[in-house]
Write a structure and sequence with these properties.
By secondary structure, this protein is an alpha+beta fold. Helix content is 55%, strand content 15%. It has a two-stranded antiparallel ribbon with strand order 1-2. A two-stranded antiparallel sheet has the order 3-4. β1 and β2 form a beta hairpin. α1 (32-58) runs antiparallel to α3 (94-120), α4 packs antiparallel against α5 and α5 (141-148) crosses α6.
């Protein structure tokens, strides 16, 4: 839907994005906001799993065993043995398959994260700040009101957020 030219952010609102000399309405899916925090945590957890797999692949186990010579005079000796874990050696391609699976999971979570960041750029700056403080940084409504300033109260910020989320 094209309107007239916009100046310095005037005339843009929820679901609108400024383009060259016109304004377009972007589809707003507010449900992806709830997935953002889970996607961020999933990315962190998946990266840790990938690091763990890479460490497991490189891990060399060592041990000492005691035995004796097989010929007379049967003196006791200590032998140092080392090698890779049985799971790495028994199925060599299994770790690579699991690592690829984790990379796909990480890519899906990053896609959701980018969708939320793109959506955040289409909403008013004040609402961006409210969402960042209240949802992403998990601040209380009172703390958000203090951060916003301009005589904002905890209840006014909470109601502004609720009204925004109820809009279609």
């Amino acid at each position: 839907m094209a309107r007239g030219p916009t100046r310095a952010g005037y005339g843009t609102g929820v679901g609108h994005v400024r383009t060259w000399m016109r304004e377009e309405v972007m589809p707003v899916d507010k449900n992806i906001l709830s997935q953002y925090i889970d996607a961020c945590e999933l990315i962190k957890e998946t990266e840790e799993d990938i690091r763990r797999i890479k460490r497991q692949r490189k891990t060399i186990l060592q041990d000492r065993v005691h035995g004796s010579m097989k010929e007379f005079p049967y003196t006791a000796q200590s032998f140092k043995i080392q090698g890779m874990a049985y799971s790495v050696v028994s199925e060599p391609g299994e770790l690579e398959v699991y690592e690829r699976l984790l990379e796909v999971r990480k890519a899906d979570a990053e896609r959701i994260k980018v969708q939320v960041e793109t959506w955040m750029n289409t909403i008013p700056q004040r609402m961006q700040r409210i969402i960042r403080y209240a949802i992403f940084q998990k601040m209380s409504w009172g703390e958000v009101a203090i951060k916003l300033g301009r005589k904002a109260t905890a209840d006014s910020v909470r109601m502004e957020f609720q009204r925004f989320m109820e809009e279609k």
